[in-house]
Amino acid sequence: MREVDKVIGARLQSSVALVGDVARYIIVAGGKRLRPALLLLMCGALDCRDARRFNLAAVVEFIHTATLLHDDVVDASTLRRACGAAGRRPTSISATPPACWWATSCIRVLSR
Description:
The chain is mainly alpha-helical.
C-alpha cells in the first residue's frame, strides 16, 4: 500500500488551491483503502508483478474518492468519517470541482 500512497501523493499536486486543499483533506481523513487493497490482492493471486498495478490501485481510490465528493454535494452531507464533509468545510466553496479533478486524475494516471 505504500506504493499506492506514493502514487496518490504524487497526484495531489494541483495549481488550483481549492482542489489541492480538498484533495489533501480527503487523504488525511483516512479510510481503509479497501478497494486498492483488493486490487493488489487479486494481482498477487494472479501472479501479476507489473509495476502499473500500483497506478491502477490508485485509480480505484481516485474513482471512489470522486464519487464520495459528489455524493456529499448531492446529499448536502455535513459529515464524512466523523469529520466535516469536504463540501461543507468553511474553506471549501464546493466539492464539485475537486471531484471532477479526481475523476480526470484517473485518466492522467492510466495514460502513463
